[in-house]
Design goal:
Length: about 210
Amino acid sequence: MERFKLVAKGLIAVVLLSCLTTRLMAADLVSGYFSGLQSFEADFTQTVIDANGEMVQDSKGRVWIQRPGRFRWDYETPYRQQIVADGRQMWTYDEDLEQATVKEIDEALSSTPAMLLSSYRPLAEVMDWQQTSSEAGITWYRLDPKQKDAAVEEIRIAFDGRELGRIQVLDGFGNRTEIRFLNGKRNKSISADRFRFSVPAGTDIIGTPE
Protein backbone atom coordinates (compact mmCIF):
# COMPACT_ATOMS: atom_id res chain seq x y z
CA MET A 1 0.00 0.00 0.00
CA GLU A 2 2.79 2.43 0.90
CA ARG A 3 4.54 1.60 -2.36
CA PHE A 4 1.27 2.31 -4.22
CA LYS A 5 0.96 5.68 -2.47
CA LEU A 6 4.51 6.60 -3.44
CA VAL A 7 3.86 5.63 -7.08
CA ALA A 8 0.61 7.65 -7.10
CA LYS A 9 2.37 10.67 -5.64
CA GLY A 10 5.08 10.29 -8.26
CA LEU A 11 2.49 10.20 -11.06
CA ILE A 12 0.77 13.31 -9.68
CA ALA A 13 4.10 15.11 -9.54
CA VAL A 14 4.82 14.14 -13.17
CA VAL A 15 1.39 15.36 -14.27
CA LEU A 16 1.78 18.66 -12.41
CA LEU A 17 5.27 19.16 -13.83
CA SER A 18 3.98 18.39 -17.32
CA CYS A 19 1.16 20.94 -16.95
CA LEU A 20 3.56 23.56 -15.61
CA THR A 21 6.01 22.92 -18.47
CA THR A 22 3.20 23.23 -21.04
CA ARG A 23 2.08 26.53 -19.52
CA LEU A 24 5.65 27.87 -19.49
CA MET A 25 6.16 26.83 -23.13
CA ALA A 26 2.91 28.57 -24.04
CA ALA A 27 3.98 31.72 -22.22
CA ASP A 28 7.39 31.61 -23.90
CA LEU A 29 5.82 31.28 -27.37
CA VAL A 30 3.45 34.22 -26.96
CA SER A 31 5.72 36.55 -25.02
CA GLY A 32 8.74 35.61 -27.12
CA TYR A 33 6.94 36.29 -30.37
CA PHE A 34 5.62 39.71 -29.39
CA SER A 35 8.64 40.88 -27.39
CA GLY A 36 10.89 40.11 -30.35
CA LEU A 37 8.54 41.60 -32.94
CA GLN A 38 9.95 44.66 -34.70
CA SER A 39 8.16 44.54 -38.05
CA PHE A 40 5.62 42.37 -39.81
CA GLU A 41 4.37 42.17 -43.39
CA ALA A 42 1.79 39.79 -44.85
CA ASP A 43 -1.16 39.27 -47.12
CA PHE A 44 -4.39 38.91 -45.17
CA THR A 45 -8.01 37.89 -45.45
CA GLN A 46 -10.64 39.33 -43.09
CA THR A 47 -14.11 38.01 -42.41
CA VAL A 48 -16.78 39.39 -40.10
CA ILE A 49 -19.61 37.15 -38.87
CA ASP A 50 -22.52 38.85 -37.12
CA ALA A 51 -24.37 37.65 -34.02
CA ASN A 52 -26.82 35.71 -36.23
CA GLY A 53 -24.03 33.76 -37.90
CA GLU A 54 -24.27 35.69 -41.18
CA MET A 55 -21.13 36.82 -42.99
CA VAL A 56 -21.25 40.61 -43.33
CA GLN A 57 -17.72 41.21 -44.60
CA ASP A 58 -15.23 39.23 -46.65
CA SER A 59 -12.17 41.20 -47.67
CA LYS A 60 -8.49 40.83 -48.40
CA GLY A 61 -5.40 42.97 -48.71
CA ARG A 62 -1.89 43.48 -47.38
CA VAL A 63 -0.56 44.73 -44.04
CA TRP A 64 2.73 46.31 -42.94
CA ILE A 65 3.64 46.83 -39.26
CA GLN A 66 6.60 48.71 -37.80
CA ARG A 67 6.88 48.93 -34.03
CA PRO A 68 6.20 51.11 -32.23
CA GLY A 69 2.93 52.57 -33.45
CA ARG A 70 3.28 52.48 -37.24
CA PHE A 71 1.17 50.32 -39.53
CA ARG A 72 -0.64 50.23 -42.86
CA TRP A 73 -3.59 48.02 -43.80
CA ASP A 74 -4.45 48.19 -47.51
CA TYR A 75 -7.83 46.62 -48.28
CA GLU A 76 -8.14 45.62 -51.94
CA THR A 77 -11.55 43.90 -52.01
CA PRO A 78 -14.52 44.25 -51.91
CA TYR A 79 -13.67 47.98 -51.95
CA ARG A 80 -10.43 49.88 -51.60
CA GLN A 81 -9.63 51.29 -48.19
CA GLN A 82 -6.44 52.29 -46.38
CA ILE A 83 -5.70 52.49 -42.66
CA VAL A 84 -2.37 54.20 -42.03
CA ALA A 85 -0.71 55.14 -38.72
CA ASP A 86 2.50 57.16 -38.44
CA GLY A 87 3.03 56.72 -34.69
CA ARG A 88 1.00 59.79 -33.75
CA GLN A 89 -2.20 59.76 -35.80
CA MET A 90 -4.20 57.15 -37.67
CA TRP A 91 -5.85 57.83 -41.03
CA THR A 92 -8.73 55.79 -42.45
CA TYR A 93 -9.29 56.51 -46.14
CA ASP A 94 -12.21 55.27 -48.24
CA GLU A 95 -11.40 55.63 -51.92
CA ASP A 96 -14.98 55.30 -53.21
CA LEU A 97 -16.37 57.87 -50.76
CA GLU A 98 -13.35 60.17 -51.18
CA GLN A 99 -13.36 60.57 -47.40
CA ALA A 100 -10.60 60.35 -44.79
CA THR A 101 -10.92 60.22 -41.00
CA VAL A 102 -7.98 61.09 -38.73
CA LYS A 103 -7.67 60.32 -34.99
CA GLU A 104 -5.01 60.30 -32.33
CA ILE A 105 -3.51 56.83 -32.32
CA ASP A 106 -4.22 56.10 -28.62
CA GLU A 107 -7.89 56.97 -29.14
CA ALA A 108 -8.18 54.84 -32.26
CA LEU A 109 -6.48 51.58 -31.36
CA SER A 110 -7.96 50.13 -28.16
CA SER A 111 -7.86 46.28 -28.09
CA THR A 112 -7.62 45.82 -31.84
CA PRO A 113 -5.42 43.53 -33.97
CA ALA A 114 -3.44 46.63 -34.94
CA MET A 115 -2.78 47.34 -31.24
CA LEU A 116 -1.56 43.79 -30.61
CA LEU A 117 0.93 43.97 -33.45
CA SER A 118 2.11 47.57 -33.18
CA SER A 119 1.76 48.41 -29.49
CA TYR A 120 4.28 50.63 -27.72
CA ARG A 121 3.96 48.54 -24.56
CA PRO A 122 5.02 44.91 -23.93
CA LEU A 123 2.10 42.53 -24.37
CA ALA A 124 2.41 41.32 -20.75
CA GLU A 125 1.60 44.84 -19.52
CA VAL A 126 -1.75 44.95 -21.33
CA MET A 127 -2.83 41.31 -21.70
CA ASP A 128 -3.07 38.04 -19.83
CA TRP A 129 -3.17 34.88 -21.94
CA GLN A 130 -3.61 31.13 -21.77
CA GLN A 131 -3.48 28.29 -24.26
CA THR A 132 -6.90 26.91 -25.16
CA SER A 133 -6.22 24.20 -27.76
CA SER A 134 -3.60 22.69 -30.04
CA GLU A 135 -4.17 20.46 -33.05
CA ALA A 136 -2.36 19.74 -36.33
CA GLY A 137 0.33 22.29 -35.55
CA ILE A 138 -2.17 25.11 -34.86
CA THR A 139 -2.09 26.41 -31.27
CA TRP A 140 -4.80 28.77 -29.99
CA TYR A 141 -4.55 31.24 -27.10
CA ARG A 142 -7.14 33.42 -25.41
CA LEU A 143 -6.02 36.95 -24.56
CA ASP A 144 -7.72 38.98 -21.82
CA PRO A 145 -7.09 42.75 -21.67
CA LYS A 146 -5.97 43.82 -18.20
CA GLN A 147 -7.93 47.02 -18.68
CA LYS A 148 -11.42 46.01 -19.70
CA ASP A 149 -12.62 47.31 -23.03
CA ALA A 150 -16.40 47.59 -23.42
CA ALA A 151 -16.07 47.12 -27.17
CA VAL A 152 -14.20 43.81 -26.93
CA GLU A 153 -15.55 40.59 -25.41
CA GLU A 154 -12.84 38.13 -26.43
CA ILE A 155 -9.53 38.01 -28.28
CA ARG A 156 -7.99 34.80 -29.62
CA ILE A 157 -4.78 34.27 -31.57
CA ALA A 158 -3.43 31.19 -33.33
CA PHE A 159 0.12 30.20 -34.13
CA ASP A 160 0.97 27.93 -37.05
CA GLY A 161 4.09 26.36 -35.62
CA ARG A 162 5.90 29.42 -34.25
CA GLU A 163 4.42 31.93 -36.70
CA LEU A 164 1.32 34.05 -36.12
CA GLY A 165 -1.50 32.71 -38.29
CA ARG A 166 -4.80 34.24 -37.14
CA ILE A 167 -6.37 36.82 -34.87
CA GLN A 168 -10.03 36.64 -33.80
CA VAL A 169 -11.92 39.42 -32.01
CA LEU A 170 -15.43 39.11 -30.60
CA ASP A 171 -16.99 42.52 -30.03
CA GLY A 172 -19.72 43.67 -27.66
CA PHE A 173 -22.40 43.30 -30.35
CA GLY A 174 -21.62 39.64 -30.99
CA ASN A 175 -19.70 40.21 -34.23
CA ARG A 176 -16.67 37.98 -34.72
CA THR A 177 -13.81 39.29 -36.86
CA GLU A 178 -11.15 36.86 -38.03
CA ILE A 179 -7.95 37.89 -39.79
CA ARG A 180 -5.76 35.24 -41.41
CA PHE A 181 -2.19 36.04 -42.37
CA LEU A 182 -0.49 34.56 -45.43
CA ASN A 183 3.07 34.84 -46.74
CA GLY A 184 4.16 36.58 -43.55
CA LYS A 185 7.58 38.21 -43.20
CA ARG A 186 8.82 39.00 -39.70
CA ASN A 187 11.43 41.62 -38.78
CA LYS A 188 12.23 42.59 -42.37
CA SER A 189 13.11 46.17 -43.33
CA ILE A 190 10.13 48.36 -44.34
CA SER A 191 10.46 51.84 -45.84
CA ALA A 192 9.25 54.66 -43.57
CA ASP A 193 7.34 56.07 -46.57
CA ARG A 194 4.95 53.14 -46.26
CA PHE A 195 3.51 54.73 -43.08
CA ARG A 196 2.96 58.25 -44.44
CA PHE A 197 -0.51 59.11 -45.69
CA SER A 198 -0.85 61.75 -48.40
CA VAL A 199 -4.40 63.09 -48.65
CA PRO A 200 -5.63 62.80 -52.26
CA ALA A 201 -6.98 65.99 -53.82
CA GLY A 202 -10.72 66.49 -53.30
CA THR A 203 -10.87 64.30 -50.17
CA ASP A 204 -13.20 65.28 -47.33
CA ILE A 205 -11.34 65.14 -44.00
CA ILE A 206 -13.04 64.30 -40.70
CA GLY A 207 -10.92 65.17 -37.69
CA THR A 208 -7.96 67.46 -37.16
CA PRO A 209 -4.65 66.51 -38.78
CA GLU A 210 -1.42 67.59 -37.10
